[in-house]
Amino acid sequence: MAALPNNLNQNSWPELPLDAWQDTYATLHMWTQIVGKVRLALSPRINHWWEVALYVNARGLTTSAIPYDGKVFEVQFDFIDHKLMILTSWGPSKTLALKAQSVADFYAEFMSALRSLGIAVKIWTMPCEVPNPVRFTADTQHASYDPEYTHRFWQVLVSCEDIFQEFRAGFIGKDSPVHFFWGSFDLCVTRFSGRRAPERAGADPVTREAYSHEVISAGFWPGGGDIKGAAFYAYAAPEPAGFAEQKVQPAAAYYHPQMKEFLLMYDDLRRAASPRQVLLSFLQSTYDAGANLAHWDRKDLERGQAVVEAPLRS
């Protein structure tokens, strides 16, 4: 048997120490915001801002199809060959190298590539959901790109995507896609009870729309601030009384009172004998805690254990 390519021989839960790739992470965060804002500017509005997200694919992250003048185009980050591809339904395409360069230079090059393909779009150039934001056009501080750690990050997303999809399959109520939000730079999946949530006093329009209905959400995040490493998270919004005191799995998971989320550090998961089972137990136990305390109609929202598979053809 021929040897597998190097990237397939690597651990699907590789080491991802925050301090080793923090500069690359910060730069890549801004690059994904630039691309994501193009999708936001051109896509029809969808509930809970689902139209803005990116998606994990076999090469990296993609916008999926973006409508434009009766046609579509797609922007894809390739974290294997480290390039950005702009693909169009009308034929022409553009490929840009992913390399160490400033956010300002990336913005200029990317927008020029769009114009060369006949795509005219204007975005708000101020980053979202980051402290001390600097306009993309003026950001020369963030200019790092480490291909190895970018690839590792994407490997983790691929593994998470697989397990999140498995978890999502057990829910038949309203459920988000497994998607990557470039604002908060996390991969997540969200379940809905079907009930509207109480209005959040003083909430900005983004938050008001995102949490207009009761949710239990879980995801993966590279870390930052007080969280000094990558972590899985889970929360309920609005949070039911007693949620913080619930015992969840695995034993290493804990409730963070400031973030109002249960956290499971990535390193605790990757060292486990069965990371897949550990992550599924975290997702399920945190959902159980929130759904039970908030009195969700679980019988109608969840798929039973006995599922009859319909044949594709008779």
Which helices and strands appear, and what pairs or packs with what?
Layout: H1 6-9, H2 18-42, E1 55-56, E2 60-62, E3 66-68, E4 71-78, E5 83-88, E6 93-97, H3 103-116, H4 147-168, E7 179-181, E8 186-196, H5 205-210, E9 213-221, E10 231-237, E11 254-256, E12 261-265, H6 266-270, H7 275-293, H8 298-301
Antiparallel strand pairs: 1-2, 2-4, 3-4, 4-5, 5-6, 7-8, 8-9, 9-10, 10-12, 11-12
Helix pairs in contact: 2-3
Structure commentary:
There is one protein chain. 32% of the residues lie in helices and 21% in strands. With 314 residues, it is α+β, with helices and mostly antiparallel strands. The strands form 2 sheets. Strands 1, 2, 3, 4, 5 and 6 form a 6-stranded antiparallel beta sheet that branches. The chain has a 6-stranded antiparallel beta sheet with strand order 7-8-9-10-12-11. A hairpin with a 4-residue loop joins strand 5 (83-88) and strand 6. It starts with 5 loop residues before the first helix and ends in a 13-residue tail after the last helix.
Helix content: 25-40%
User: Main sheet?
Assistant: 6 strands, antiparallel
Overall 3D shape: globular
The number of E-state strands comes to 12
Q: Which sequence of SSEs, written as H and E, runs from N to C?
A: HHEEEEEEHHEEHEEEEHHH
**Would you tell me the structural class of the helices and strands?**
alpha+beta
Which oligomeric form is depicted? single chain
Low-confidence stretches: 1-10, 306-312
Structure described in brief:
With 314 residues, the chain is an alpha+beta fold. Helix content is 32%, strand content 21%.
